[in-house]
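Assemble and predict.
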Amino acid sequence: MKRNPTAFLKEEYQKLVEQNLDWKLRVLEGPSAPRSVVEGKKVLMLCSNNYLNLSNHPRLKKAAKDIIDTHGVGSGSVRAIAGTMDIHMEVEKALARFKKTEAALVYQTGFAANSGLIPQLVDKGDLIISDELNHGSIIDGVRLSGADRAIFKHRDYGNLEDVLNEAEKENYRRILIITDGVFSMDGDVARMDAIVNLAEEHGAMTYVDDAHGEGVLGENGRGIGAHYNLEGKIHVEMGTFSKAYGVVGGLIAGSRDLVNFAFNKSRTWLLSASHPPQVAAAQLAAIQVLESEPQHWKRLWDNTRYFKKELKSMGFDTGQSETPITPVIVGESSVAKALSDKLFENGVFALPIVFPMVAKDKARIRTMMNAGLTDEDLTDALQAFEKCGKELKII
Amino acid sequence: MHVLGFVVNPIAGMGGRVGLKGTDNVVEEAVERGAEPVSGERAIRTLKMLVKARVEYKREIPITWVTVSGSMGADLLEKAGFSPEEYVVAYECGGTTTRKDTQEGCREFQNRNVELIVFCGGDGTARDIFEVVDAETPIVGIPAGVKMHSGVFGVNPESVAEVIIAFTEGNLGLSEVEIMDLDERAYRKGEWKIDLHGIAVTPFEETYIQSAKMMVRGPSEEELKREIADYILELMEENTLYILGSGSTLKAVGEELGIDKTLLGIDAVINGNMIEKDLNEKELLHLLEKYNDSTLIVSPIGAQGFILGRGNQQLSPAVIRKVGIDNIMVVATPAKLQRTENLRVDTGDMELDKAFSEKRYFRIITGYHTMAVRSVEVQVAGR
């Protein structure tokens, strides 16, 4: 029989629809802001990663607009050939200064950083040791590498030590320990101090994906390195411009050797075009805002503390989060879905995370705090949580 | 509309509180000792959760139940709030129910092509059902028994409701789990023997990998078993005797080798060929005499994660000593590992158990060139 070359497209999509696993895109009309319009409805946005609301900051918007007049809207090439502009170099210089590292490098996205760099750092004859709850982009990066892999229990550094001791029985050339900085489902933070200690003992390299920590953790949002006073001691601090920085793009910060190695070897970096100048200009402005306007970072944490405290006093279970990611754990998946729907009706946009994505009894609404939320916004959000929680007999 | 079987063993769990290791063959004694039924109440907790999800959380849950009469099903469905149109009684049980009623009921369920059998009971009930239904029919157990070594049980009655909902929504894969049971007659004579009776399928969440906004589906259980098998093949050395333990992960290793590995037995392989299958202790010792180098490959069995001492008594202390603790290789899919926090052993030999305690942890192969490390605990029978 002659094959139908494209029948699977529809079939596989239909299957996802039937299983309710397809993505239904919700369209924002206008900016991603603390008060957004989603599908025609005005809602409080509690599920964006725009922690500091910098995507709407006047300095970022102006920087992006202005540079179009002098640099155009495209970079014309990959960085390695003819796509490196002065603005790209400025961003990397500012980033290294802000992160207090020797050097820094900007990738097209965070995913491109992980999937491009990890397979270059380790290969056959090496071992990569990964937290079991690491982000999908790390897992893809690990899968692209020829190295052996070991998985340790989530944030269980005793188990990591057992793995390292077991690994010493083999004659590995290099060992790379890799972890998320902030785990995006629970908002808990990797103990980088413990990891760095173990790594030093065993001569292992350390790599942290600080996507949810950049702009959030450490003084003025310098990231997880600053949070633990380990600036310059983590071999690869990887992060993103797409969350707290309010723009888009991946980044790594570390030694000059690391950066030289990384841009000469990462295929993702070498084979995709560089950011258009307006993206780079906005990135630079974001760093400058973080350096000169600490109020956003302070406000984010004030909001986080207040929101968590109020939810807890209402009787909600907010889990073990140490960051602006605040899960509201309600138990059964049905309850989480019902709560999310009800919250949306009441003007709060927060998505449910349900079984089988989290354990059966740990279904939740995942909320993310934002520096742009005013006192009034928070009151409205909390009132909606209280009302819906009571209606569903969660509290 | 999904057609699901529902059966409750009304006497399951009765032995526990009165100091019996189960109610197989001794229900009268349990009643005399003052045992009261517990399983009905536990089953109702699951059913009520389903009703609540429908009424309060607006979940559809389109189910038609096929069940057994009275306290084995229908009464409980009614009590939990299912309407008479939502269930059919496929089998009428007598006044005093026995395992025969469970089995006849399940035969009827199969005749009516149920997609999933939900039962409430313990290891004995799981085994009764497994004996009469074909191995492809998924089974999930509401835990109510004294013994629950089998892998078919939910953590608690409410979690089984979650599994049922996700199953009806098509969100779950199927996973192979061991049906295990204590030999109660032997136990009452002071002998602790847990047998592996077979491999059933149960609905199971596939491995999910954390992703930025949500999760993406990782490789399936079957793919991971093949990965493990590929890696084992790479590691296998010439002229070394490989003793392959029981279970589906090691069966997959056999498939990659192109041999007909037994599912429940212990088989021996050398240079890629199976030399003997379904070996007992004596035969194993005989083979170990012949070969200088040997490796034993095992996978955690049952709900408690035993690698030795449950369901594989052939691997006696003498066999383990002859192979050597450091030549034991452990394999498990990540999903299986998620269910078993630590590895357990119970060799029945104090000195050997001590040697396992001193080893502290084992490396476990969980995929292609992928490992994890788990502590090993000694847990002595009956405790």
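Chain A touches chain B at residues 18-21, 132-137, 139, 147-152, 159, 162-163, 166, 180, 183-185, 211, 332-335, 337-338, 341, 353, 355-357, 360-361, 392-393 (CB under 8 Å).
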